[in-house]
Amino acid sequence: MYEQEHRIPRSVRRLALGLAMGFLLVLLGVFNTIGYHVYLIDEVAVDRTYASQGYLLGTVRIDMVFNPILYPFYWLKSLNRINGTFFLVYYADGFGGEGQPGGARFPWREEGRYEGYLSSFTTWGFFPNMGILLAAAILIEFAHAKAVYIALFTGILGFTFAVLYGLIVSVIIGGGLAFYFKFRVSRDNAILRFWHSLWE
After folding, report:
1. Among 48, 88, 103, 197, which one is most buried in terms of CB atoms within 10 A?
2. What mean pLDDT do residues 28-43 have?
3. Does pLDDT of 3 surpass 70?
4. 178 vs 105, 132, 154, CA distance in Å?
5. 42's torsion region: left (phi>0), alpha (psi -120 to 50) or beta?
6. Tens digits of per-residue pLDDT, 155-190?
7. The pLDDT value given to residue 108
8. DSSP character at residue 100
9. Could you tell me the maximum CA-CA distance found in the chain, to the nearest angstrom?
């Protein structure tokens, strides 16, 4: 009786699980090769005029593509691929470094600044992109469509190994598996029972 009275409502559990899955997708998008693939990044020139004020101005050539599963907002805005030369700001890693202009610390090798340059593109649409991922994950939960996760995660895996072509093939395979387990496999199947036990 006590357990029934204090059992968490199913709708709350679905909301919590949807939020957890949404944040997991957001987290995966942060990683190179999983959330995005960089074909080329090259620092053409760097201006250290403002180093004493804590930042550098870099001229950077970039060619990168975003995973449509993890960056849906970018694809909706037709910014799924970034290809060109850009003027970007690289902020100091900190201050107080010995021998550094104005005490600001910067990586002296250009490779050390690449991550900072890439973050200019991965963060500009962070909040609307996160909102879409959270809304999608919550919708999956309330629509009782957890099988969709199979297609999503196989697609993410495919993007990691073969970018867009890998994603397309993997989503088709994952979608087929999701359909099979959803409509063709008996609910008494051991694999299906294990799958449902993960979400209870």
Report:
1. 88
2. 96
3. no
4. 50, 22, 11
5. beta
6. 999 999 999 999 999 999 999 988 877 766 656 666
7. 75
8. S
9. 71
> Of 14, 23, 10, nearest to 145 (Cα)?
14
Residue pointed to by tokens 């850009």: 86
Residues in the chain: 200
**Strand 104-105 versus strand 55-66 pairing type:** unpaired
| Tokens linked to 66 | 């975003």
**Partners of 91 in the β-ladder:** 55
pTM value? Answer: 0.84
Whether the pLDDT of residue 133 is over 70: the answer is yes
d(CA 44, CA 188): 61
**pLDDT level of residue 30 (50, 70, 90 thresholds):** very high
Residue 34 · residue 67 · CB < 8 Å: yes
CA-to-CA separations, 13 to 26, 137, 141, 142, 154, in angstroms, rounded: 20, 13, 9, 10, 25
Measured distance CA(12)–CA(19) in Å, rounded:
11
Give, in order, the Cα–Cα distances in Å from 28 to each of 31, 156, 157, 172.
6, 9, 11, 21
Please give the Cα distance from 29 to 126 (Å, whole number). 10
- Using the CB atoms, write b or e for 138-167: b if 16+ within 10 Å: bebbeeeebbbbbbbbbbbebbbeebeebb
